[in-house]
Amino acid sequence: MGARDSQPPPEEGPEAPDSPAAVQIRQRLTSYRFPQSHRLTRKAELTSVLRRGKRVRTRFLEIRAMPSPLAHPRAGLIIAKGRRRAVDRNRIKRKIREAVRLYLLPVLGRVDFVIRTRDEIYGASDDEFRADLSEAIGQLIEATESAR
Questions:
Q1: CATH code of the region 36-147
Q2: Domain boundaries, the chain
Q3: pTM score, two decimals?
């Protein structure tokens, strides 16, 4: 089987490029993304929030927040290396990104915030992490509402 034997993509059915199922799956995947417009990516933006933002601290996390110049919230992540493997850091990053996307972005108004992990997070169980994150979210919402 070579390039000559390859067949063009089907024009009908679920594999068709614009079939309802393919479009629906594509929309579903993109709706679960953490949009670029809601991220703090530039060093100057992160530094500004870290220096001037109001601090919320828990056992595993430190969050700094300040009013955003945009009409929506933006988040930045700083994951402590702590002599850990990249696999461990990426797992923590995914958990935090998911929590930010699901729980923080929908409830916060015009706020820029940076979440910095502490080394202790690597020893935390999933239940401990969720409880700590829930506490941090509650404190952050209080802090941002009192600043308004």
A1: 3.30.230.10
A2: 36-147
A3: 0.71
